[in-house]
Amino acid sequence: MLIIRGIALLLDVKYVKNVANLCSVWDMGLQLFRKHISLSPEIEHKTVTGLLRLIESERLGEAIDKTLLSHLLKMFTDLGMYSETFEKPFLECTSEFYATEGVKYLQQSDIPDYLRHAESRLQEEHDRCILYLEANTRKPLIATTEKQLLQRHTSAIIEKGFTVLMEANRVTDLSRMYTLFQRVDAIEMLKQALSLYIRGTGQGIIMDEEKDKDLVSFLLEFKASLDKILEESFAKNEAFSNTIKESFEHLINLRQNRPAELIAKFLDEKLRAGNKGTSEEELEGILDKVLVLFRFIQGKDVFEAFYKKDLAKRLLLGKSASIDAEKSMITKLKTECGSQFTNKLEGMFKDIELSKEINDSFKQSSQARTKLPTGIEMSVHVLTTGYWPTYPPMDVKLPHELNVYQDIFKEFYLSKYSGRRLMWQNSLGHCVLKVEFPKGRKELAVSLFQSVVLMLFNDAQKLSFVDIKESTGIEDKELRRTLQSLACGKVRVLQKTPKGRDIDDKDEFVFNEDFSAPLYRIKVNAIQMKETVEENTSTTERVFQDRQYQVDAAIVRIMKTRKTLSHTLLITELFQQLKFPIKPADMKKRIESLIDREYLERDRSNPQIYNYLA
Amino acid sequence: MARPMGSSGFEAALAVCPAAAQAYSKYCGIVSGCTNANPREGLADLSRTIDNMEGMRDGIFGDIHKLMSVLEFDDVSQFNSFYDFVFFISRENGQKNITVQKALAAWRIVLVGRFRLLDRWCNFVEKYQRHNISEDAWQQLLAFSRCVNEDLEGYDPKGAWPVIIDDFVEHMHRIYRPSDCSSAMESQCSISNTFRGLNLLPGSKR
């Protein structure tokens, strides 16, 4: 045709251009060619099927003559027959091909393979467009492929593969899934699957009481792995990050109160002295991570109660790993929950610092220098009642020297701060005793109760349980615990007859003459750090008691301003005001109690409405 | 003196159980505000007067069903005050609330024929309630008996019902309707139909 055009060029230029309704020689050639092809549909059909078969065999992995394909398609384009004659059957054929392939592949291969396959298929189709297809075929072609390979199978892919991938932490595969799902608009589905996965996986562990011990570390790990996946696989998608937060919050609060308690205890373990191998920075990191969990907790008051209890013990028994770390934790809590949450905790630190000063000035005071019994040294923590946890008063008959000491200190303190009342918390005291064992001299770090018991043996060889109880005046259960720690633990300063793990009324105790230990200074007062069952229940109970008062106060506050309010509105306002999780039934009980105490009454005409009684 | 009850009823009541009728009449007088005294103090006085005579309170309590059988309640509010009067009489030694035992006995007299779930209610309270019954719970039960059907239709779990009533409803659902909702709906209809013919007592809303 080129030649013909070359020959007839003059004709073209001189004649055709100037006459309307006449095509150039070239165009006329094309027209004639098209006419002949359309006259014999057989040829047209053969060409098209031939083309399709070629493409299909390429898809199946065979090498084909791409130049031929390219030329033929170019011809179709030139003849204006591309979209009608070729593109339509081509897309149909593609759809059919991938439909069968998708089903087949999904059955025989696992999800990561399938996704990888889909990805490479999409790439191939893309290349095909560049190599020999018309550019505007690309969109419908890719869409068809996506539809057949992905869209139709999204739920199956998620169902079959999502959990497996998450569990195995397959970051790249998940990332592939994310990109592919994004193409077919199935991100919402992926998000739901993620939420379900988080809730499902965590539930078993949260609810299983036997796994309480590892709960916090599990949650930390889980959160870390989720964060990693979010960052590396889900492109830090905001919606996904929110989903993770929501699901996590749901997860942690599945069980009330206990997770908060466990988080507090986990922190206690980390902040307690004797954590070898953790540097300051590592500790900081852990604190930050735990704080993330803390954020999800709804019942923060439970956390506060337990944290406070443990903090008190760390401070008073000198077991804190680092005051800097303690303070940094308090600062973190403060930024998280406001100063109201932490002012009691800060007060505790203040007390400790003040106590140091008081002790120093006490030692230099005239009272101390003139009247104090010699041979003992004492330091006193003066605690402000409201800041610290409440401790049940425990009576004990102290040795004479200690009593004198206490009285002198009291005199000194009250002369400085008149009008205050001092109460001794014997259960929190701890001492260092110097003991002459036949096999060597030792220093024992013991609790005050332990030392009171031990000092009895200064004057006696053998004492029965009843004797000890009488002369110390320690409460029965506490005394049993104390004796157990002295005679049945790792460090046996006393010997008990008959032997056994439990303390019986008839048991007798003698000083252990054969005591020996490699170290000079020995700690026996671990029982003081340990949380007793009673402590635990009383802490929890106090939280619940506090909550009741808070509910009552909130109801009265609301009703005082509103005077009259319907039940539903009152409950809604309460939910807004109260910061801990509470069941509607519990609120109702408080409302009833307030009705009973005549703070409120039901409206005479409508029992759904309450009136405030001034 | 105010005549809060149907006049014929009152004459008969005076004849059958004079003490109870008198007490009730005084009670109504105080509550309706016809006497000048503050109702709260008036009631406290009346309570003291009754307690001053030994055995009087128990005597009146024993006569409640007699009193009820002769009195005629023309409308809801009349029965309301009678129902509250029963609570008033059931209180012992100036206590605010009444014991579960007393409440059960009183309910069995006063709500018979007026509360279709009475037996189930009493069984439930007997089995699970350990605290005393407060005046609020007492009064709300009457309201509950009026607005709730045999099948608990009309009960709104988000309403202001006392917890004891919420617990009762939950208990009923657990025991009598463990199956799925559709069949429950059917049975609801059939029960309502069965009972449509029930002759309603005066003072009952439906």
From TrEMBL, chain A:
Q: Which Gene3D superfamilies match?
A: Cullin Repeats, Cullin, Chain C, Domain 2, Winged helix-like DNA-binding domain superfamily/Winged helix DNA-binding domain
Q: Name one GO biological process term.
A: ubiquitin-dependent protein catabolic process
The UniProt keyword set, sorted, is:
Isopeptide bond, Ubl conjugation, Ubl conjugation pathway
Gene Ontology CC: one annotated term: nucleus
Q: Which GO terms describe its molecular function?
A: ubiquitin protein ligase binding
Q: Which InterPro entries match?
A: Cullin, Cullin-like_AB, Cullin_homology, Cullin_homology_sf, Cullin_N, Cullin_neddylation_domain, Cullin_repeat-like_dom_sf, WH-like_DNA-bd_sf
The family note in this entry says: Belongs to the cullin family.
**Record-given protein name:** Cullin-4
> What is the originating organism of this protein?
Aegilops tauschii subsp. strangulata
Which taxonomic lineage does the organism of this UniProt entry have?
A: Eukaryota, Viridiplantae, Streptophyta, Embryophyta, Tracheophyta
From TrEMBL, chain B:
Note the Gene3D superfamilies from the entry: Cullin, PONY binding domain
- What species is given as this protein's source? Aegilops tauschii subsp. strangulata (Goatgrass)
- Pfam families the UniProt entry points to: Cullin_binding (PF03556)
- What's a single GO CC term here? ubiquitin ligase complex
Please give the biological process terms from Gene Ontology that the record holds: protein neddylation
Q: Which residue range or ranges hold the DCUN1 domain?
A: 1-173
Q: Which GO molecular function entries does the Swiss-Prot or TrEMBL record give?
A: cullin family protein binding; ubiquitin conjugating enzyme binding; ubiquitin-like protein binding
Under which name does UniProt file this protein?
Defective in cullin neddylation protein
